[in-house]
Amino acid sequence: MNFRVQKLAFKHGRNTFKNFVVTFTITIVLLLLGYLFTAKLVLAFKPDEAGHLGITSAAMLSIAEPVGGVKLKFSRQARAEIRDANISTDSLTGDAWVAEKHFDNEEFPAATTRLLNLKSYIIGQITSPSPNGRNARIALGGTLHTIQDFYTHTNWVEMGNTGIDIRLGRTTIPKPPVSLQSSPINDPGVLLARVPHLTSGYFLPPTFCSAPPGKTRHGWDICPNGLNKDDSSRPRYMQARTLAVYASQDFINQILKAPGVAGNARAIRALMGL
Predict the structure, then answer these.
(1) Same domain for 25 and 101
(2) What SS3 state is found at 67?
(3) CA separation for the pair 47, 70 (Å, rounded)
(4) What confidence score (pLDDT) does residue 48 get?
(5) Binning pLDDT at 50, 70 and 90, where does residue 135 land?
(6) Are residues 171 and 200 in the same domain?
(7) % of the chain exceeding 90 in pLDDT
(8) Domain check: are 158 and 179 in the same one?
(9) Of 138, 104, 113, which is closest to residue 215 (Cα–Cα)?
(10) How many domains does the structure of the chain reveal?
(11) Separation CA 198–CA 106 (nearest Å)
(12) What sign has the CA pseudo-torsion 148, 149, 153, 156?
């Protein structure tokens, strides 16, 4: 075989190997994406009556706002719209990957700023000269999802707290110290005992199983150990769920008692779909 033939053979072999690597990589990525879209994910409280839907319903059904001698409650249609907006926050084609919408990756400043902004938006929608209750309810559903995820995606419960964090919807929460270690360096699936600051699970591509050194992962089907308390199989699930209901009630009441809304039958009726 002369030099030219050898050169062509080598080039062909190199291209074949390169094509194999590209094809193999694409196949793995597609398989992972397919699993993400079809598996029973542990991303948040489940979109059922034991999870986000039931939590949201329990919070709304407990609300009876007295206005002019009448107690106003959310209509069935309003409850359905808020529930739908809540679970859409876990859409795998968009919001599921936005950390501040789920209190993932220790994104506390962004997540709590989101709550403040949405609270202002909701109030503005129902107190405007032309109230838009539907827009307000869609925003409320997404906001409640984020609030509920605070209790399942952070270590608030593990820190021994038995009440809600009243900062949600009222102020921002800073990131923990950079030096905070919440997991062993070589095992992000284990939460250390007595972590002194608030932290939350990391949910990072491409495998969603890793975390920065010393931090804790969220955990899902292929790496189940992690910080989340998303379903009844997880430790402290019931504590997290209970606080999520109370915190959802608290946020709704923040809106109903806000200046311009409190005692304003027109605004409250717009929000409640009445």
Answers:
(1) no
(2) strand
(3) 33
(4) 64
(5) very high
(6) yes
(7) 76
(8) yes
(9) 104
(10) 2
(11) 8
(12) negative
Distance CA 49, CA 46 (A): 8
Fill in the amino acid letter for 88. S
Indicate if 12 and 49 belong to the same structural domain: no
pLDDT tens digits, one per residue of 21-32? 444 445 444 444
Confidence category of residue 193, pLDDT binned at 50, 70, 90: very high
Q: Which residues pair with 70 in a beta bridge?
A: 67
Q: Match 């950390």 to its residue by tokens.
A: 99
Q: Answer yes or no: do 149 and 34 share one domain.
A: no
| Domain extent at residue 25 | 1-38
Backbone angles phi, psi at 221, to 5 degrees: -50, -45
C-alpha torsion sign, points 179, 184, 185, 188: negative
Question: Do 131 and 46 fall within a single domain?
Answer: yes
Nearest CA-CA partner of 209 in 229, 238, 183, 188: 188
Same domain, 80 and 123: yes
Token representation of residue 192: 């250390």
User: What does the DSSP assignment read for 196-263?
Assistant: SS--B-B-BTTTS-B-STT--B--BTTB--SS---STTSTTHHHHHHHHHHHHHHHHHHHHTSTTTTT
For residue 71, give the DSSP letter. E
Terminal Cα-to-Cα distance of the chain (whole angstroms)? 86
Task: List the alpha helices (DSSP H) in 89-204.
Answer: 108-127, 133-153
| Helix, strand, or coil (residue 154) | strand
Asked whether 157 and 163 are in contact (CB, 8 A), the reply is no
> How far is it, in rounded angstroms, from Cα 67 to Cα 62?
16
Q: What is the mean pLDDT of the chain?
A: 87
Residue of 46, 184, 58, 169 lying closest to 119 (CA atoms): 169
Cα angle vertex 186, ends 182, 189, to 5°?
A: 55
Residue with the bigger pLDDT between 146 and 25: it is: 146
* In a shared domain, residues 57 and 189: yes
